[in-house]
Write a structure and sequence with these properties.
- There is one protein chain.
- This protein has 562 residues and is mainly alpha-helical.
- Helix content is 56%, strand content 5%.
- Among the domains are: 36-152, no CATH class; 445-561.
- It is elongated and about 95 Å long.
């Protein structure tokens, strides 16, 4: 017989569920929303173990007060710092809310004492808090006060203490204040003998400067580069290796010799077999930034990445597992591959990559981050795969309006995706009822400074006016959203007749003879959808020609296609 609930019972049940939910949220706020365990398997854990070896521990034989509430109510100010440290070490805040309250009380007491504590005591307290609340230490007053006090003592700190300070500052990401303190620390650090810096020291510096977006000065950056060159064993330590590479990317360092050395090392000792999906994508990003094409690296990295995706058991990011493959990792991987114009098989995209993305979307991992899906769809389109499966989740008028309202980077990628659809699938654009792509403002000056051959070719063509049907040549970005400048030739000043695209250092992949970048390849593909003729000019073929010979060659090419 079915149970019939009265309206009173139903209301009571709803209130119970609401109360239960509030309790759960309260526990979540007490104990943290992430289950992070620090140990030798995580970079932070490894660095923390290393840094703690600097600390000379006090007498840990002090008997701590066993009743946390008694410790709080009897007056923390009566306890010496060793008693407090020992008591905190024994606290288990993961289950007992009373211990959370005690930790807050200790935080208040220790913060008031910081300016009277030794450097060793301050660092030891930070280490203890880090071991108890690693993901929330920056929310405690002790953290803020300790950083301030140690910064005041900066000129009195030794090398090991400065390294520790740099580590703790890096826990608070991307804040101008932290950025300035890290720079001060490094300026003091370079006064010492940089040869005494250990790999762990260098890793701390790379990690914290990356998190605080602090650029390194030349002296210490060269120390990091030299370490990479002379210690290829780091290739078998993915955590440290990737941390070093993040610093290289942030400092915009580009060195073909270094990439050749790393490529050879990873392939020779097969260290790539130890890399996680995230590590693979971070390493590929260095190649992508520099537009450096190494087919063997791209092949083994893409095969390894696809295999890891096949084998991975999906874990929602809400579970906060350190080793799970995140949507941002997949996005970075696809950006690298598409930018380097390396082709993945449609079968791998359809049966491995797309299902992994959809799992994360349906699990709520994307939530309101529709811009990431737009970027992923663009990178797949560049790889000549139409990810129609993803479109319902982000390509609506409402979402487009929201994406256009955020940063320029995301807006440009969405705009380019819409351009691709309008060029290669016009009917879909009509069916989706979304606005066409717009020509966003783009300052060509910076790009032109990097492309002297392009300007020279355009200038040579302009001097040839009168020798062909074309009477105007103009530099412009012909495809909305593709910010690659080309040359348009006009008849009667207004009717475009030919597009001349120049393959130079800006649009050609390094370590190849004449392979265009992924974006250049996309532009050529889109231009071929138009009525105008397309001429591709490779500057390598022109380098031994004078202006007159270049004009003659180009006019012959134009006459042939027009």
């Amino acid at each position: 017989m079915a149970t019939i609930f009265s309206s009173h019972q139903l209301l009571k049940s709803i209130r119970f569920l609401q109360t239960y939910r509030r309790i759960q949220l309260r526990r979540k706020s007490f104990f943290g929303d992430k289950n992070i365990e620090l140990g030798e398997t995580t970079l932070t854990g490894r660095l923390l173990i290393y840094l703690n070896s600097f600390n000379v521990h006090g007498n840990e034989n002090f008997i701590p007060v066993k009743d946390p509430i008694k410790l709080k109510t009897t007056g923390l100010n009566k306890c010496n710092i060793e008693q407090i440290k020992t008591s905190v070490r024994l606290l288990d805040i993961s289950q007992d809310i009373n211990n959370f309250y005690l930790l807050r009380a200790i935080d208040k007491e220790c913060s008031a004492r910081v300016n009277k504590l030794s450097n060793a005591d301050i660092f030891e307290l930070l280490h203890i808090y880090m071991s108890k609340v690693p993901n929330r230490i920056i929310n405690y007053k002790l953290y803020e006060i300790a950083i301030q006090e140690l910064t005041k003592r900066l000129n009195l700190l030794n090398k090991n203490e400065i390294i520790q300070l740099i580590f703790y500052i890096g826990l608070r990401k991307k804040q101008a204040k932290q950025h300035n303190i890290v720079r001060k620390c490094i300026n003091y650090l370079i006064r010492s003998d940089l040869e005494t810096l250990t790999p762990e020291d260098l890793c701390v510096i790379c990690n914290s400067t990356f998190k605080t977006t602090t650029k390194l000065n030349e002296k210490i950056f060269n120390t990091i580069i030299n370490y990479l060159y002379n210690n290829l064993k780091i290739l078998k330590d993915p955590a440290f290796f990737v941390t070093f590479l993040k610093s290289i990317r942030q400092n915009r360092y580009q060195d073909e010799d270094l990439l050749e050395t790393l490529s050879y090392g990873m392939l020779f000792n097969k260290s790539f077999e130890q890399y996680s999906f995230s590590a693979l994508s971070h390493i590929l990003a260095v190649y992508s930034d520099y537009l450096y094409y190494n087919e063997n690296v791209l092949r083994v990295f893409s095969e390894r990445s696809i295999q890891l995706l096949k084998e991975s058991d999906f874990i929602s990011k809400k579970e906060h597992m350190s080793n799970h493959i995140r949507l941002k990792d997949i996005k970075r991987f696809l950006w690298c591959i598409s930018n380097l114009n390396y082709k993945l098989s449609s079968q791998d995209i359809k049966t491995v990559i797309i299902p992994n993305i959809l799992k994360r979307v349906k699990a709520g991992d994307v939530e309101s981050d529709h811009s990431s899906l737009a970027e992923i769809a663009l990178y797949l389109w560049m790889l000549n795969y139409r990810a129609y499966e993803l479109f319902p989740f982000f390509l609506t008028k409402h979402n487009i309006r929201n994406i256009y309202g955020v940063n320029t980077h995301t807006k440009q990628r969405l705009n380019l995706l819409i351009t691709c659809i309008s060029y290669e699938n016009k009917e879909l654009l009509k069916d989706l009822s979304i606005p066409p792509a717009v020509q966003l403002d783009y300052d060509m000056k910076y790009q032109l400074e990097k492309r002297p051959e392009l300007q020279r070719i355009c200038s040579d063509l302009q001097t040839s006016i009168g020798n062909s049907e074309l009477n105007k040549f103009e530099l412009s970005c012909q495809v909305p959203g593709v910010n690659i400048i080309g040359i348009t030739g006009y008849k009667n000043n207004t009717h475009s007749s030919v597009f001349l695209e120049v393959l130079d250092e800006y649009t050609r992949l390094k370590n190849t003879e004449s392979m265009p970048t992924g974006l250049m390849e996309l532009k050529l593909r889109l231009l071929n959808q138009l009525d105008e003729a397309v001429v591709l000019v490779d500057t390598e073929e022109l380098k031994d020609l004078n202006s007159s010979e270049i004009r003659e060659l180009l006019l012959d090419e134009i006459e042939f296609v027009c």
